[in-house]
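Translate sequence into structure tokens.
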Amino acid sequence: MTWFCLLLVSGAPAAAVLPAWLRLGVEERVRAAAVAGAGFHPSASDASLLNRLRLDADLQPLAWMRLHMQAQDARILGASERPAPVSLRDPLDLRQGYLELGRNRERGATLRVGRQSLTLGDGRLVGDPNWSNVGRSFDAVRATLAARRAKLDAFAAS
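Result follows.
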């Protein structure tokens, strides 16, 4: 038996306070989980609290240039497994930090260079599942050509 509870709070400060070329954001996610009977052992149980904080900054000095940065702090509290798996714990890290060149992501060409989350299509082959406490990001170069009904992505990532 497994149960969980999820609380997600996100937001951005009022645009009137910040200059037009700067956007800031915050996301706080808290998730409680408990497992009973793990590994088919009736007495095996565990409960934990997963916490994830993300701070975002977007700087757009020119219409065709954007710098995006995202810091993340992901922790797990109360789990009996020590040390906690890296899929659940990553104290203070630069999750994303990239430069994007191009005017319109819906139509035209864009180039994105740096640490970024990649999701292609529905994310089955390459993706960043939001359910994970840590998330997934890649050091990558991504070029996109987009038209009305077609989109072509080329990327190199590690």
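Note: The first strand starts at residue 2 and ends at 11.
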